[in-house]
Task: structure prediction
Amino acid sequence: MGKVVQKLSFWEKAGYGFGDLASVLFWQTITAYLLYFYTDVFGITAAAAGTMILVSRIWDGINDPLMGIIADRTNTRWGKFRPYLLWCSVPLAVVGVLTFTTPDLSYTGKLVYAYVTFMLLMMLYTAINIPYSSLLGVITPDTIERTSVSSYKYVFAYLSGTIVSITALPLTQYFGGGNEAAGWQKTMMVYGAAAVIFFLIAFISTKERVMPPPRQKSSVKDDLKDLINNKPWLILLAATIFMVLFVATRISVIPHYFKYYVEHQQLNLFGTVYNLGFVELTSAFNGIGQISAIIGVLCTKWFASLFGKKKAFIILFIISIISNAAFYALKPSDVSWIFILQIIYSLTSGPLTPLIWAMYADSADYSEWKNKRRATGLVFSASTMSQKFGWAFGTAFAGWLLTLVGYQANIAQSEAVKEGLRLLVSLIPAFIGILSLIVMLFYKLDEDTMSNIASELEERRKNRNDDLAAT
Result:
């Protein structure tokens, strides 16, 4: 049987990517700066903030499959998944501002406020991002094109991450005028307004083309049973949890790493000496990482075509882990090497997420091929749940360890705290990354298998359409 091909236009791929341009304005701010915001601006301890983020994200992760089930059962003239880009964008922006607002309350009052606003923020993020992610599974039936769309998605994601990395701290300084709390609130107003526009572009630009079998009965029990029996999806789920834990543990303490370990440094570039502080170093480090990740993502389709998605994932992840572990050997004065290793790490880790996300789309096809039922929203939402669990435990672990070694905000740190920061950006995440690699070795859906599955599914859909036309 011939290979299924359904090409998408550049504009639709780019339009889909705008959804992540919007989403990551929130996601990157949360992952890169939320722990710092809660400890050094909002005014709660690292342990309390870590526990709050853990509890909130576990609750949010549990909501992901529920949202997937709801999305799978949504039927509108716009499709199943696209309407949520329209319905949830404004509420998400409003609550994003409230989350990064520092109220004049007691410590307990602040903690309650943090729980309420962050949990609401993540629930709204789920309500818009699960349908958006699921859209990747129905925008085209062609597995190669989905890898291409996934690359666009993550180019825009890393572009958004670059914007946040470069602008967040300078904007808080600009808008705050010395009041960091006010600066964060106004910065989130800007990000929220931009996100609403970007979500609407994604809504307008895309179409849903892959539909469930027309006579498929809607059964949550059967959907969950199919998911639990989907071995490739279970492997991807475990690999994703470890992969995200690998990233989250590291990124959540990067601001602390530069503020308290690297501190102020001089950097000589082409004969010019620059005096760099916390804001400049952190913004440049995160920014160059995001730009490098974009370059890596642009090569995702090439890597997948050359090696296959699984082999490409493993090769790139090994390089990423090694470059990350090497951070442990760096001293505060090794600024050039800090940035060189960040570039290598980001170039090789950037393609990992689009590769594994394209494999999730393959696992949805595998489930339909095996069970003659399709639940795209549930597959992607349960997959997103694994990401959130990884971020939850990574951030919480970082907060707990910082408190355990004696971290207190806005004071000179002890050698124990500095050693903890070194470990959290190097050896600890590297070990977790190795666990993800081991799990991925058991994944079996290679390109030949998926080509045969895609062809058979296309034949089934054609026969179903012929049968419906005959009746």
